[in-house]
Each structure stands twice: as C-alpha cells, then as structure tokens.
Amino acid sequence: MAESDASSIPLSSPSSKLDSPDGRARHAPSPPDALSSFGVGAPRASSVAGVTLSWSDLTYTLLLPAAERRAAARAAAARDAAAGTAAEAGDSPPASGGGGGGGEPPDGGAVGVDGLDAAEARAGVRHVLRGVSGRVGSGQVLAIMGPSGCGKTTLLNLLAGRVAKARTHVAGGVVRVDGGRREPGAFRRLAAYVAQDDVLFSELTVREHIAFAAGLRVASGADVAPTTAALLAELRLTHVADSRVGSPLVRGVSGGERKRTAIAVELVAAPPLVFLDEPTSALDAANALVVADRLAALAAGGRAVVTTIHQPRSDIFDRFDLLLLLARGGSVAYWGPAADVVTYFAGLSLPCPERVNPADFIIDLVSVRPPGAVGAPGLPSLGSSAATAALPRRAGTADAAALAAAEVAAAAAAADLTLILKAARVQQLALAANPDGAASPTMATTEVTMSPTAAALADGDGVLSPGGGAGLGAWAAMGRLLGRPAAGSAVKRRVRTGAAAATTTGAGGGVPAPRAGSSSPTVTLSRHRVRSEASDDVSAEEPDILVPWGRQFGTLLRRSALLNVRERTFNRSRLVQALFVSSFVGITFYMAGASRTGSLDDVVIVGNVLGMVIVSQLMTATTGLSLSFPAERAMVLRERANGSYGVSAYILSKTLAESARNAVFSLLYSIIVYFLLGLKPSVVNFGLFAATLLATSLMGESVGLVTATAVSSVKAVAVLMPMVVCLPLLYSGILLPPSDTPVFFRWAFKVSYVSYAFAAVLKNQFNGLLFERPPFSFSAGVMTGEQALGVWQVNTLSVGACVGVVCAQALALRLVAYAVLRQRGPRFDVSV
C-alpha cells in the first residue's frame, strides 16, 4: 500500500482521454506488450501487485416467482393471440428491436414482454445476463453502465464472486485471474468489495473503523498503524480521521466521506482488485466527483477498479478508462475504451448531440423497449389496424398525430437498439473465443480482428459500418452458433463453467466450447423450474483467515467494548431502568422483605415482587440485544465474507463485552432493590441475589441473540420475542404452581430458565427465616421460610445450583447462536 498522499498522484484532465484514441491517461507510461496488445489502453503507474481479470460468456438465468410466471404466461398467450388476429387481418407484425437484448430477431416476432421474450415468458424464467465477455487490468477503471434492471449489480457480483448461493438461479461462463481459473477463497482475499449501502458503525470514528479493519486483516500487527495512516491520506480522510461516522439519525461525516471510509475499510489488505456497487449513489455532484477522483487514484496506484454506476455526470464519466454498457435484458451494447464510445456510436449513424452528456446519450440509446409489446408500457403498434382505427375515436386529430409520431420514434429507437446489439454480439463472440489472447477485440477498434466463425455472422456491408447491418441470414447463423432453438421449441442451453473454455476448430477459427470433463451445468428452462446439474456441487468456500485467533479475539473485544461504551441511547435506557424502575419497586414495596408476621399475603407479596424483578431484568436484556443485533449482522456477514475472523472469536468477544456491561447495570439495580425491599441483611445473600440477576440478564441476551441470528428481519424478531419470553415465563412458577398446570405440561418447569432464576431468589430470601403466624390464624405458631416456599412449589436445588443452571442454559444458547451464525454465514455460488 502506498503511504504517500493521494494528492501527489496526477489525475487525467477532462480532455486527456478524449484526445487519446486508445483511452490512456496521458500520465501513464507506455503499456507492456501483454496489455498494449489487448487494445484497451495502458494501465497507470503501479504500486500494487498487478492482476488481470477476464471473463467470457457470463450468463445468469433467474427463476421467476409463481405470480410473475403466471402473469408472464398470460401476457405471452395474449400476445400470441394478438399476433394471430393481426395475421388473419393481413396486418404485418410490429417491428421490434429486441429490447430484451438477445431476444428473437426482428422478423421472428417473439419479443419482449416486460423485458421477457416469448420463450422466457412461457418458461417462467428471466435471462438477467446474456453472454457477457470482457477484461480489465491493473491501472484501469472499468465502469459498468446501463438502465435500471439491466443486470449491472448481478454482473459485478459474478465478477467479484459474490453471487448468493440459491437454487433459483443458474450462473454460467468463466472468470479468470491472470489467465487461470480463480479459486473462490483465494480470490476473495485478492478482491475488495464495496457494497452500495455503507455498512459502518455510527459510534466509531473514521480512524477507528480503518484501524480495527486493519487489525483483523493485516498479517503483522506492527503494520496496522502505518496502513491506517496511509489509507487516511490516500482516500483524503485525514481531516475527519477523528470524527464519528454517524448515521441518518446521528450527525457524523458527510456522505462522500462516509463512502470513502467504506472504501478504505476494504483496502486495508491492499487488494489488487476493487469492486464497487454504485459508489456515487445518494451523493451530490461535488461528493460524487471526489469519489470518482479517488477511484482514479486507486487505479493509478496499480489496482484494477470495477464499478457500477447509473448515469454519471460528464467529468465523472471522463475518469473511466473502460466502459461496459448493458442493455435491457443483460446483453452487451458496448465494451471498450470509455473515451471512444461517442466515436463508436457515431460510426453506427448514432451521433451524440452537442452539449449532451455522453453518459446520458448512451443510456438513452439502450433504455428503449420494443413498441407494442404486450404487457410492456408504451403505445400500441401502428401496425395494428384496430389501434389505427381507434385513434380518431380516442383523441383529436392533433393528439392522434402526436401519438403516431411517438410510435414512429419508438420504432426507430428500437431499430437502433437492434443494430447496436447485433454489432456488440459479434464482438462479444470473438472476445469469448479468445478472452486472454493478443487479438482480443474491443468495440472501438476500427479494424476488428475476429475468428472466421464470428466474422461470418456479419454481412457483406459489415455490422460496424454506418448503415450496415447483419441480414436475416447472418441473424440465423448467429442463432445457430448460439444454439438458439427455433420458435416454439423447448429452450435448453449448455452454460460453460470450466476453467478455460476449449475451442472448436474450423476454418481457422474457433468459438468457446465446454472443456471435456468440466462441471458445466445444463440449464433446463421449463415452465416450472430452473435446474442445474452442478448445483449440488457448488461449494461456499470462505477465504482463509490470515490473522491469528488471539489477535482476532483481542481486536473484536476492544471494538465491542468501545461500541458498548458509546451506545448512548441503549446505555441511558439501561440506566433509567436500573435507577427508576428499581426505585419505584423498592419504594412501593418498601421493607416488604423485612416483615416476619407470617401472613400468607405478606409472603406472597414478597414472592411476587421478586418474580417481577426477574422478569424486568429478563425483558430489558432480551429486547435490547434482539433489536440491536440485526444492524450488526450486516457487518458480521461482510467481514466474514472478507475472511476477517472466525465465528468463535466474534461470539466469545461479544459475550465478554456484554457481560461486563450487564454486570454494571445489574449491580446497580440489585443494590437499590435489595436494600429498599429490606431483604436479608447478609453480604452472602446479597452476592447471590446480584449473581442471579446477572445470570438472568445474560440469559435474556442469549435468547435475544439466538432469535436475532435465526431471523434477520427486525419486524420478525419483534413478533417472535413475546413468544420466546412468555412461554418460559408461563412455566416459571410466578403465575401458578406446577400442581395447577396440566400434567402433560409440568415437564416445562424443569427446562424453563425463568423457573430456576425465580427459585434462586426465593430460596435466597426465605431459607432460614422464621415467621410468627397471627394468633387467630388457622394454624398459629412458628412458620419456617422453607414452609413458605411451598406456596410456589419450587425445585429442590440449592441457590448456587439454580444460578448454575441458568448460566449453563445461557452458555448453551450462545453455542446455538454460534452454530446458527456459522450455518447462516455468507454463502456464494462459486460455479463461475
């Protein structure tokens, strides 16, 4: 990691890349042969070990939910019926541009229904990505752009190895690192991933966030401070290093500084690959530009940066070296130097107007939908005689003319998209055939070198020339090459996931084919499901943890303790509970425990008060942790995905930190209640009373932790908590003795943790006491405290044994939480 301030790194000016036809920043040195032959520009000066990431023919198919499958099937049936009616009436089908990206040809008729083509609608699936190929090297910033829902984040997650493991999708293709198949665990140690939502602790400062992350991921403890200082300088965070990050409810650093803090946390291990999902979202223009400058500086330090971004301003767009533009449906519309995208589309007779942001222009080009698609928003097709006849009845002549003009414009935009996707598909096929070779083409090269098989898809005019386009024969050849079935046939496709796609030779060229013996899954698209033959073999390998367990535990313990001290709202609530609730209880039942009259009412009152004390401690601890942990859960999942620490170190450190805080509040509560109620004036008895309340509080936190780890939703936790707490309370002996409970439920008293805590405080108070019965009572004389305990029918264990049972149950629940966290940890699909 470079320790110099990032301000010393020269950045490209807004005009530097536009003046450079190969997309290089002017300060960059001449590229080495391996990268200059790539044809997408040279990397910047390197201070981090270089790496090259390439990918070929990435696909992602998603099973639609049942409701969407039924709606898509109905829309497809309605479209087929409309097409049949139009054919009988002699109308030509509406022209369409394949707005789904990779759908059927314009003459084929089967085009998008809400982004689905007819085959997808009938099969109940959605192709999120379709055959995406590309490459990025050290010193380059690659921007993945496209309209909302085009698959940008899905592609980023595939490249970063962060696609969640599930049976509702099938991913295919190959991702390589330096030309070799990546190993998932090792790859995630090489790659930093910055999510769109910043997962940070609002109570910690910027410096503390970076320092704790470095302590968990830097191999040598002596490097933690230098790494922290270097990242503060590199991300321009030195001036806010000691400011708390804050949250929407707590004032902290600005949005741009918060985003750069999230980036710095991921860079502590000096990864050569950096993936970012919408890093400028929710930022104003100035902060977004600062973040873009920092990304360019990271690339200048030798990293390969891949980011998704929706629609950047022009000076932010100029910071990008490479551009991968996706159209609706996940097909590539452009891949190559970002500086050449305007020239490229001008060559397709689609010039960018003056004074228009190129990013806005290209997004508009690929955001159109096919006109007249059933179920899609837009206008009815003018090819329909019914629609044309209805125009004068629905609107005036002026409105009808405007409607017709809009329809013509929509059809023209769809036709433009058809041309764009055809040209891009030819380039993507050639790139997929040779992703790591010296002749890998880019969209912006004027003379595209491709295999004869891929070149055969272009017609005589050439798909890249203005006014040119692949004819129907070329489209059919492309369909045969891709294995696209004829309309109406079953959809079945082989997705490549081998370490390297082999090539089938012929006529001096080749296209990717699955390697023999590879685990390439067969994607079967049926009406009801998506099945992958390799899905059962998909592992969720986590990266190896480089830091020793002792340092993991120490770092996490310091962080947990610091967070506990700074959680002001929770601490104030616990303090109010300890001071005021205990005071109100003690004053209301002042010196009730000192009464020795022996009346049943007095004995019952003391027992009920002690039961309420147990319940209040239990509810406070359970509710507090169960509602606060879901926010921390996101941080735990992110750090575990990075290989920062093991679950055992986290659980033990959190248990010790929470126990220390609980001990303070439980002791304060115990002191006030014990002496105001006038309980036994004995140091030993007070110690046992305080130990029982502390064990109850720890038990409550254990219950809350298990519930919060098993259920990620805060609302679901809030719904489950009453059941989790009330059932043990029901069988505790506070409300009714075991003899009044149905026989088949009496076993519950032996497992209820509340019953043991209640028994402990009762025995601690009544054992050894003597009560004088009133002279006119049913049985006058002396009553022992042991006889008084018969009212509640408590167990026969000693006070210490009861406290020990509660502690053992708390420990058992912590082990359950450990198992749940391990089971519900980050699980990624590593088939690609």
UniProtKB/TrEMBL annotation:
Record's bilayer topology term: Multi-pass membrane protein
InterPro entries cross-referenced by the UniProt entry: AAA+_ATPase, ABC2_TM, ABC_transporter-like_ATP-bd, ABCG_dom, ABCG_transporters, P-loop_NTPase
Transmembrane feature ranges: 575-593, 605-629, 660-679, 686-710, 716-736, 743-762, 797-821
Predominant localisation class: membrane
Gene Ontology terms, MF aspect: ABC-type transporter activity; ATP binding; ATP hydrolysis activity
Keywords from the UniProt entry: ATP-binding, Membrane, Nucleotide-binding, Transmembrane, Transmembrane helix, Transport
Domain spans labelled ABC transporter: 113-354
GO cellular-component term (any): plasma membrane
Membrane is among the record's keywords: yes
Annotated Gly residues bias: 96-112
Gene3D superfamilies named among the record's database cross-references: P-loop containing nucleotide triphosphate hydrolases
UniProt region (Disordered), positions on chain: 1-41, 84-114, 498-536
PANTHER family: ABC TRANSPORTER G FAMILY MEMBER 28, PROTEIN SCARLET
Protein name, per record: Probable ATP-dependent transporter ycf16
UniProt organism field: Porphyra umbilicalis
